[in-house]
Amino acid sequence: MKAASAVILAVTLLWCGSAAAAESKSLRLVQSVRTLDKLYDAAARGNGDAPQVAARLLKQIARHIEAMDAKDLGEPSAVRGLALYMLSGGKPDPVLRLLGQAKLPEEQQTLLAGIAAFARGDSAAARRLLAKIDAASLAPSLGGRLALVQAMVAPAQDAAKALALLRLARHLMPGTLVEEAALRRGIAIAVEIDDAAEIEGQADLYIRRFAASAYAAPFERQLALSLLHAAGKTDARLAGIEALLDPLPPDMRRRIYLTMAAAAARRGRVVAAQFAAARAYRLAAPGSIEVARAELYDGAVAIVGADYDAGLTKLRSLERSQLPKPDAKLLDSALDIARQIRRDARGSDGFRPMGPSRDPLHIADFRSIEQVLQRANKAMADTDAAIKEGML
Questions:
Q1: Residue 303 phi/psi, 5° resolution?
Q2: Integer Cα distance of 115 and 123 in angstroms
Q3: Do residues 78 and 29 make contact, with C-beta atoms less than 8 angstroms apart?
Q4: For residue 243, how far is the Cα from the chain centroid?
């Protein structure tokens, strides 16, 4: 990995620092953007150093654009280079300066103005301007990025259009960071429209093609919560999710299962929490903090199911001081809930905690389950933000 990064850096410096003097500014821009493409694709394949090198290259390209003037936009490649620069994360300011100086054909002016609006965060203007452009009619390296942006600025109520644009982006630029980003965005949209099959399908593609991506780790939490959503309220799809995650490295699977278990426990999803906690437990090293966390999530939901006594024993066995702060708060909340359940059991409603279940995924059907879950959710709501910070 280090050797590959050294090669990448050398190539970057070659393009940006020692290009031939006779080279036109527009050609040098296009060549630099192509190198940027290679860096991002290396990141998608797992090179962790590539994003930092790409950030340096973006700054160098920006300085190069600042040295350009209107006459340098006479070549068609220059407009494409400017568009790709902004679509690759470049700041729009130097491009907007050039647009104010040059008179470009309307379609090129609209393309650059729309992309600049997106880069500035003006989604409404970007949507209006870029709607006039057919991404499929452009060169794949430009059309794929444009389709991704068009999907990102599509109105929330037009999820079908956004998903179609994401499919186009993936088709035009397979195996690249554009496809990787399109899959991440597609999973998020599928969650918003509650399409479990779409979530699983795109997650499967992401795992098979981009599990080693430099951007996969920050995406793990979203992936875990998306898969929990795909499992459905009845948790009927959990077995399929396990099969989907099996190709991932054990460390990544453990982190995803822990995130799923924590979120499921907080939401009162007993079956899902126990399912994910059990698998995280098997993937964790004996005596590790991950084992304690898995037992915490399992115990936290067991006390509101058929295994109250076993759950309480498990919670009491945990050493609070060894847990991360958000998990320590969750332990406190779970123990408070357990004490409340015990008080309820001694009350006048006749409720008694039930004995161990033969089926670890079975939920007891007892009268106070809804009230208990309501108290659980209320008690743990104040730890939501902290839990989100501690899961990855």
A1: -70, -15
A2: 10
A3: yes
A4: 20
Higher pLDDT, 65 or 10: 65
Six-digit token string for 360: 């670890």
Q: Rg for the chain (alpha carbons), in Å?
A: 26
Give per-residue pLDDT as tens, 69-105: 888 887 778 899 999 999 999 999 999 998 888 888 8
